[in-house]
């Protein structure tokens, strides 16, 4: 039990903190703190530890709960949250146990990985990032929260805000790509979408920022592998998206499985306390990723259950997912005097705050509504939003001689490839409760879009098998057609967790299939369905048109057809570099120059003997059915001191026949600084619709903060001197000017 003195001290701190916010907010916060302190003062040590415990259930395909071996623990008040259980009835049943059968009637949190949709599945997160459209991404997360909360859930394990520059790593599919600026805006959009404006609104759910930290940079791209990086790289590139999500108000944070510079994230006081709480002021709670407390033993930093629990709780972990270590070890550790009960109280306080903020103490069943469960999922509006998001995520990588869009009066289309009609693969990984049997395939989408056209389908081969038995049939289909749509890529299971690859080419015999189709001489467009950058130089060299469609979700087939037919003019831009070969990895646009930048006339400069340095497609790249021309950059002034902003203006014209959206991108380079700076860094962008034949003027505002970086002494701020600005439609933007910061 905490002493009355500590209680008073805490209350004073709370009151002082509250004094900085609005009066209504202050009194709300005061009420919450008083309520929570009172509750904690009634809790036994075991009940406190119970709040710090999260267990998984297991559901079968019919939506029945088939494993719930924690029911007794719930009734003893020894569980704080449950995950992987959904459905109004299941959740109501467990919540009833928690609030009706326990002494203190503390409601449970119910979590699930609602990553890119709940029942209506949106494109995978990497695809959404390719839209460069934070507003639409916010809407996607909003729909996901509405659907999930309609079935009883109040917590999602998203957004995943891990930067990754390594497409070998399968979880690159779950993030927003390689760039901290773009990823930070997207992280904020997702938090806003999930949590909405009012946490007590029953259509909002708590977000969980993961995986803290640097999970996206495992050595050699191998899942769960160690991460070793400089603090400068960590702070400049990997931490900003987590921080952006925290600043946006994300209620919870999840630790990462990996070690960072030798210290497992789940044992890292540096990450969980020094940075997250002390530097960033995070007020919510920290949950582990799955059994990562237990994994401190194989990591080699804990000798057993007691040790692992002590290390992690002291580092700043508040809730143990699935290891059950806190449940069996923490009370014992307190009794031994190894862990202070105040540490436990603080963790419980953080967890109860989230429950309070969600309104669960007021009404533990606010997320349990049979009507909403019946009416609010997979609505026509949600399906339409998923289709819109999918269209916006697609990236046109190549379109020689304007092969696309395909005319509506085309007579015969051959639709070939293992992904053309594979419902199972449309949703991608982490598809929550998405039902793949409801997904629209590319073949179905094209049939609906081209009702008058003869469509011949041939699978050609499987995704990863080595049989060529179906090649002849596919070739014959191609020969009988006016144009071929080749749907190639990865199976859904090939990206996501535990899905690292060393060869990023098309799996199986898919490229050979493409080669056979190419030999027929028929015009062909490849539609790629995949969860990561693939090495597709052969396709790029030989196939006239390539559309990156990623895993586009429930409405994917319709969305691809919208783009192929020109009913939507593609506007996506790559959020991640596409290498030519896996040997170039990690490859990203914001690298440093080196002391020996590549010079083709000199051997001893930075290059490979067997590959160019440059990637196949650069960050920010993507074509449209129209073309955009950039004017010259105008600056409001060429010197600035930081007391005012500098304005950068450019004129962009749509020179083609189609209306189109362009993502106007602004990059900066600091050519002379105390620390070598990247050759370019994205600092601003604007996505805008420009009607055919028209121009738009775009103005960006930069402040001294946009020039800041970790200087030689690791302080964060700008340095005086010249800055180069580049503006254009991708990271190779060639319009450039300089200004001086004085
Ligand atoms: C993943 C997390 C996920 C958790 C719960 C882990 O394996 O790494 O991202 O939230 O499982 O499903």
Please characterize this protein's 3D structure.
- There is one protein chain.
- This protein is globular.
- The chain has 742 residues and is α/β, with parallel strands linked by helices.
- It is built from 23 helices and 29 strands.
- A hairpin with a 5-residue loop joins strand 2 (58-59) and strand 3 (65-67).
- The chain is 32% helix and 18% strand.
- Mean pLDDT is 96; it is low at 1-19.
- The strands form 8 sheets. A 6-stranded mixed sheet has the order 13-18-17-16-14-15, sandwiched between helices.
Write the layout of secondary structure elements.
Layout: H1 4-18, H2 23-42, H3 45-51, E1 53-56, E2 58-59, E3 65-67, H4 71-75, E4 81-83, H5 88-100, E5 109-112, H6 125-130, H7 134-150, E6 155-156, H8 180-195, E7 208-212, H9 231-238, H10 240-247, E8 252-255, E9 259-260, E10 263-264, H11 269-279, E11 285-287, H12 296-299, H13 305-315, E12 320-321, H14 325-336, H15 341-357, H16 370-375, H17 380-393, E13 395-399, E14 412-416, H18 423-426, H19 442-449, E15 454-458, H20 471-479, E16 483-489, H21 510-519, E17 524-529, H22 537-542, E18 545-548, H23 556-564, E19 628-630, E20 634-635, E21 639-640, E22 646-654, E23 660-669, E24 681-690, E25 695-702, E26 709-710, E27 716-717, E28 721-728, E29 735-741
Parallel strand pairs: 1-4, 1-12, 4-5, 5-6, 7-8, 8-11, 14-15, 14-16, 16-17, 17-18, 21-29
Antiparallel strand pairs: 2-3, 9-10, 13-18, 19-22, 20-22, 22-25, 23-24, 23-28, 26-27, 28-29
The protein binds beta-D-glucopyranose.
């Amino acid at each position: 039990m905490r002493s009355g003195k500590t209680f008073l001290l805490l209350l004073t701190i709370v009151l002082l903190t509250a004094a900085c916010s609005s009066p209504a907010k202050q009194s709300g916060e005061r009420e919450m703190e008083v309520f929570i302190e009172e509750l904690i003062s009634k809790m036994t040590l075991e009940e406190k530890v119970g709040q710090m415990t999260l267990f998984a259930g297991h559901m079968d395909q019919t939506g029945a709960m088939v494993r719930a071996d924690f029911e007794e623990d719930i009734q003893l008040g020894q569980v704080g949250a449950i995950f992987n259980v959904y459905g109004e009835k299941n959740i109501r049943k467990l919540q009833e146990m928690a609030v009706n059968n326990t002494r203190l009637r503390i409601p449970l949190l119910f979590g699930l990985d609602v990553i890119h949709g709940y029942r209506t599945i949106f494109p995978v997160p990497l695809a959404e990032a390719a839209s460069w459209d934070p507003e639409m991404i916010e809407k996607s997360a909003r729909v996901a929260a509405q659907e999930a909360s309609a079935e009883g859930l109040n917590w999602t394990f998203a957004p995943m805000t891990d930067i990754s520059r390594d497409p070998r790593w399968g979880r690159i599919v779950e993030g927003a790509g390689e760039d901290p600026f773009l990823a930070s805006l997207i992280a904020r959009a997702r938090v806003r979408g999930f949590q909405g404006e009012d946490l007590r609104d029953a259509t909002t759910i708590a977000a969980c920022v993961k995986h803290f930290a640097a999970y996206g940079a495992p050595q050699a791209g191998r899942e769960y592998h160690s991460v070793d990086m400089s603090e400068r790289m960590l702070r400049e590139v990997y931490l900003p998206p987590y921080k952006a999500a925290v600043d946006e108000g994300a209620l919870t944070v999840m630790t990462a499985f990996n070690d960072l510079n030798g210290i497992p994230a789940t044992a890292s006081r540096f990450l969980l306390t020094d940075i997250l709480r002390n530097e960033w002021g995070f007020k919510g709670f920290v949950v582990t990723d799955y059994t990562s407390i237990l994994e401190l033993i194989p990591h080699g930093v804990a000798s057993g259950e007691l040790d692992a629990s002590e290390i992690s709780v002291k580092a700043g972990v508040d809730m143990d997912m699935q290891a059950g270590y806190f449940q069996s070890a923490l009370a014992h550790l307190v009794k031994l005097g190894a862990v202070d009960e105040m540490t436990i109280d603080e963790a419980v306080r953080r967890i109860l705050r989230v429950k309070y903020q969600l309104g669960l103490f007021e009404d533990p069943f606010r997320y349990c509504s049979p009507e909403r469960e019946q009416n609010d999922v997979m609505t026509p509006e949600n399906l339409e939003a998923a289709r819109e998001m999918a269209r916006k995520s697609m990236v046109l990588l190549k379109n020689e001689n304007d092969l696309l869009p395909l005319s509506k009066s085309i007579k015969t289309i051959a639709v070939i490839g293992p992904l053309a009609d594979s419902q199972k693969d449309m949703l991608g990984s982490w598809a929550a409760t998405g039902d793949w049997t409801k997904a629209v395939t590319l073949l179905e989408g094209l049939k609906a879009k081209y009702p008058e056209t003869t469509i011949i389908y041939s699978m050609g081969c499987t995704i990863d098998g080595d049989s060529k038995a179906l090649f002849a049939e596919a070739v014959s289909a191609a020969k009988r057609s006016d144009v071929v749509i080749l749907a190639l890529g990865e199976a859904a299971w090939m990206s996501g967790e535990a899905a690292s690859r060393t060869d990023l080419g098309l799996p199986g015999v898919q490229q050979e299939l493409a080669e056979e189709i190419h030999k027929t001489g028929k015009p062909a467009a490849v539609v790629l369905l995949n969860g990561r950058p693939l090495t597709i130089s052969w396709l790029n060299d030989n196939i006239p048109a390539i559309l990156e469609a990623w895993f586009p979700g429930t409405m994917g087939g319709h969305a691809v057809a919208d783009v192929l037919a020109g009913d939507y003019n593609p506007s996506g831009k790559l959020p991640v570099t596409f290498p030519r070969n896996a040997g170039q990895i990690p490859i990203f646009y914001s690298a440093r120059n080196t002391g020996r930048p590549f010079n083709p006339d000199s051997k001893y400069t930075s290059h490979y003997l067997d590959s160019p340095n440059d990637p196949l497609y650069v960050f920010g790249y993507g074509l449209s059915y129209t073309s955009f021309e950039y004017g010259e950059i105008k600056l409001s002034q060429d010197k600035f001191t930081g007391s005012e902003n500098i304005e950068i203006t450019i004129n962009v014209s749509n020179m083609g026949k189609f209306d189109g959206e362009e993502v106007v991108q602004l990059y900066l380079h600091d050519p002379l600084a105390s620390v070598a700076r990247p050759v370019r860094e994205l600092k601003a962008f604007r996505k805008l619709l420009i009607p055919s034949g028209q121009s738009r003027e775009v103005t960006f505002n930069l402040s001294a903060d946009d020039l800041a970086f970790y200087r030689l002494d690791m302080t964060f701020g700008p340095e005086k001197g010249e800055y180069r600005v580049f503006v254009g439609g991708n990271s190779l933007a060639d319009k450039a000017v300089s200004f001086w910061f004085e």
